[in-house]
Automatic annotation (TrEMBL):
SUPFAM superfamilies: Clavaminate synthase-like. This is JmjC domain-containing protein.
Amino acid sequence: MPNRQEWRPWASIQLPDDLCSLSDISPETRKLWDRVGGLPQLLDPSSCFTPRPPPFEDVWIELVRGCKSHQYDVTYKGELLGDDRESEKEELYALALLHTQQPIAREACGIKVMNIWEHGLQQRMILPEGLSKVNLGGSCMFSCHITPPGTISPFHHDFGKAQLVYCFGTKHWVVIPGLDENIRHYINESVHDNVLKRFLTHQPKGAILIKHTSEKVLFLPPGTIHAVETEEGAIFIGGEFPVIECLDVMPWLIRAQLQVFETSQEILKQDLNNYTEVVKETLRLRRDCLTILALKSWLEVYPVLLSTLRRLQGKSKNDLKDWTKDLFRLWGAWTKTTEIKACPCQPGKVLDEMGAHFRKEHLRQL
């Protein structure tokens, strides 16, 4: 385990010149984050869990159950709830190190156990009021990870949703707002093995360094690009929530990935799935002011989607059509019932036949 007195986070990486901490945010950095819904926050755990934050023992129990149910060959020896907490943690770290040799561990920079919510953790994590203008509800993704000391997870975006992360251990985050210009550089460099260093050479705007322990829950706005270094080996629970602010960021992610379709299919597929979910939940609320936001986001995605379909051939084209069929079907159904008489493509103009206009101008698919 790293020596606490000698530990320097991100010692091997040249961090952005304008990097700041949450306690020392410059006005310029604050303005950049305001464009994506606001700053990251460190929250009181009592506001993010019901009825209470799970203690270390509960998380460990759920983790073991989850691992066994998914046949990751996790074995725990000794008393689970013994008095020697440090010994338990050391055994946990050793277990995590052992599993870094497994494919699933290499992919996640630690052990990654999905579907933990089957054992009750999803009933505890909630998105506090005030972090989003509208929490869309719908399905939320929860996961539980173990990361050993010294683990570095390179930059990623977790598909554009708002996130809560509760950590047992110590982690250091570099978080970057999902601005259009940041996303373009990130997507272009994400296909390279050394994405961490390559992306940072572009000096992404608005970078913040955050130290995270179990004293707080970390909130990340939708589309936050982030990398994580583990000082103390850690368990952390993550929740991803669809909120209305996703409609600001998701189009940027999808557009950037469509432009490099050949190297981003799997991530693009998941981003399109999440975008479809957010649009579906927005339209379900039947609130015109929110529907207009969904329309504006689609008008950003659609032209790039159409041009990508035109240039693709064969299987790639069919795959993209398949990934977007639910999205096209969703908008098609909306055009048959909408009472909205305005389209963002023609501000100020009244459209008595909005449905017909939208199908003709914004739903043609090759």
